[in-house]
Design goal:
single chain, 110 residues, mainly alpha, 3 helices, globular
Length: 110
């Protein structure tokens, strides 16, 4: 009997790569990208396809798809300011706000 098991693993994708990953994931989905909620899975699967996460190369199927799930049960949509984003909206948000990955409040000007 064969059983596929998914083991939790933490991966790091540099913030600089996220806009390009979102764009390519959106292009892969095509016209439906404007309606599909963006998830971490879209970005991670695209990173695997692009060769950024070599430890997951064995999860790339013969048809080029990636057999990887990021959120057990369902993939949780990404949100910005309590709004679920489509892949297209995620790309727009990333392009309009280049400081999206910075943590913490900005220092006040003196």
């Amino acid at each position: 009997m064969q059983v596929k098991v998914y083991v939790p693993t933490v991966v790091e994708i540099p913030n600089a790569y996220v806009p390009a990953l979102a764009r390519r994931a959106s292009e892969t989905i095509g016209d439906k990208a404007a309606k599909v909620s963006a998830t971490r899975g879209h970005l991670v699967r695209q990173a695997v396809q692009d060769g950024l996460l070599r430890q997951f190369d064995d999860l790339v199927c013969e048809d080029g798809s990636v057999d990887l799930v990021c959120d057990p049960g369902t993939e949780v949509p990404l949100e910005l300011q309590n709004k679920t984003l489509s892949l297209g909206e995620l790309m727009d948000a990333l392009q309009s706000n280049r400081d999206w990955g910075e943590a913490g409040p900005r220092p006040k000007a003196a």
